[in-house]
Amino acid sequence: MGELESTLSRRVPSGIPGFDELCEGGFLRGRSYLVSGTSGAGKTNFCLQYLYKGVLEYGESGIFIATEERPEHIRANASMFGWDLETLEDENLIAIIDACSTKIGLPSNERYVEIKPFDMNSLLDTIITIQDEIDAKRCVVDSTTSLGFLIGDVGKIRIELLKLSITLEILGLTSLLTCEITREGEITRFGVENFVTDGVIVMYYKQVNNMRTHTLEVYKMRGTKHSTKIHPYEITPNGIVIHPYEEVF
Fold first, then answer.
1. How would you write the pLDDT of the chain (249 residues) with one tens digit per residue?
2. d(Cα 77, Cα 116) in Å, to the nearest integer?
3. Cβ within 8 Å of residue 8, ≥6 positions away
């Protein structure tokens, strides 16, 4: 029993129905995972659900780093699933870092604003400060692609993302980092993101005949067994639901 309890304590439930069955009960605590996919696949929704359910169902506060969308848009999108982020922010259970507005030269009235969007050290300092304030256990970076374009050089991208991943691990944060892909067969945008994370989840939004379908693959996950098959999922009015016992051929 003691060994079983120890194993379960190392797991972080995703809060996404059907996902944990694909990887022996959830994410490994303190690790970083890449969530990659094309436009429309639901990467941001997957990550928001992970944070929101983390608070409501597992009592774990979280940080959302928004590099692509302004926080008000993120809150509006979350509300479509019935997720009230603003109330959780007021209760210091979720913190959203606005790393988008300054990057495009717009003012921000957000509580947490990254004023140096080109500086990874500044972003890490902000994360450390917030983690101390709200005792965060979960983190989302949406997206690494935006950070990569700001950095430019592929070698520097790998170093900076490694610095980010290791710092999040040292802080004890179990983190999801999104990545945009543009072509079928890709799993990363710059070819290095998968080497600095402990796992890769690929979300597909493919056209089959005259309709599009959502499917998901656990491409890589260190330290645990995981499904090697491709599974369908739905984006429902209540969030993402994965069908772990169905396969796509």
1. 444 444 446 899 999 999 999 999 999 999 999 999 998 999 999 999 999 999 999 999 999 999 999 999 999 999 999 999 999 999 999 999 999 998 888 999 999 999 876 689 999 999 999 999 999 999 999 999 888 887 878 889 999 999 999 999 999 999 999 999 988 788 898 889 999 999 999 999 987 788 889 999 999 999 999 999 999 999 999 999 999 998 875
2. 26
3. 25
Range of the structural domain that residue 185 is part of = 34-203
- 0.90 exceeded by the pTM? yes
Separation CA 44–CA 35 (nearest Å): 9
Residue 49 counted as domain residue: yes
* CATH number where 130 lies: 3.40.50.300
192 within some domain:
yes
Token duo for residue 207: 């056209």
Q: Does some domain include residue 173? A: yes
- Per the structure, the count of domains in the chain is 1
- Helix intervals (H) in the chain: 2-9, 43-58, 71-79, 85-90, 120-134, 144-151, 154-170
Within a domain: 188: yes
d(CA 28, CA 12): 6
